[in-house]
From TrEMBL:
Superkingdom classification of source: Eukaryota
Protein name: 2EXR domain-containing protein
Pfam families: 2EXR
InterPro entries associated with the record: 2EXR
PANTHER family, sorted: 2EXR DOMAIN-CONTAINING PROTEIN (PTHR35910)
2EXR domain residues: 9-122
Length: 241
């Protein structure tokens, strides 16, 4: 079976605009996790290490992986190139840039990427959270660009141990007001094995977290690092309301 050639698509420009835009959107990546990572510059007589943000893989792959144990030196779960539609033609690029933003690291192209603010999720490992200078690194190298992040992924244990108010104040304030915080189910037994919950239990837990969050947010005026709503999901990517 031969592959289609350019001539097979010669009528593409004649398609209705809405159909062409759907084709470009079909090429866009699924929601990805944007994580903080350590980046090293090594030369014969020079060494420097600093913090970057980078797409680390699709959310679905992240949830399927034991991402709880990821550290700043971990490799991405999947190579995430720029959306292909950025380089096809003027129409594909312009339409894609209406939905994706460029995040530029002031020191390294490795920390520069395109992301979709309402779909891609920012995530910090516990390794990142244990080093306060890491967040200072991000604010230094990205500056006001950080406010473009709208969705954050949080490990449930981090959310509870740091307390919701503590987590948002300590790690999310530079991002300004957020749209959503997605909390991932994380209940482990004594052998660090994930406990398989029942759907009813997760629904109850989701409501508890939302009620606690609503009580916390009542009367709070500083919205930096705070989200309009929280969502609760399991390791299969199912959300509970």
């Amino acid at each position: 079976m031969s592959l289609p050639t350019y001539r097979d698509f010669r009528h593409f420009p004649s398609l209705p605009p809405e159909i062409r835009l759907m084709v470009w959107e079909y090429t866009w990546p699924m929601p990805r996790v944007i994580e903080a990572a350590s980046f090293e510059v090594v030369d014969d007589d020079y060494y420097e290490e600093f913090t970057i943000l980078r797409p680390a893989g699709p959310l679905s792959k992240f949830l399927d992986h034991e991402f709880d144990s990821r550290v700043l030196e971990s490799k991405p779960l999947e190579i995430c190139p720029h959306p292909v539609a950025l380089g096809v033609c003027h129409e594909s690029r312009q339409h894609t840039l209406k939905h994706f933003l460029a995040m530029r690291h002031s020191k390294s192209d490795t920390g520069s990427f395109f992301f979709r603010p309402l779909h891609d999720l920012l995530w910090f490992s516990i390794d990142f959270a244990d080093d306060k200078e890491r967040l200072q690194d991000l604010t230094h190298f990205y500056g006001d660009q950080l406010v473009h992040f709208q969705v954050v992924l949080v490990h449930e244990n981090d959310w509870i141990v740091d307390t919701p108010d503590g987590y948002m104040s300590n790690f999310l304030a530079p991002m300004g007001p957020l749209a959503e915080i997605h909390i991932v189910y994380s209940d482990f037994d004594d052998n660090d094995k994930l406990i398989e919950p029942k759907a009813e239990e997760l629904s109850v837990r989701a409501q508890e977290l939302k009620d606690m969050y609503a009580d916390l947010m009542h009367g709070i005026h500083d919205k930096n690092g705070k989200a309009s709503r929280i969502r609760y999901l399991d390791r299969c990517g199912r959300y509970y309301w």
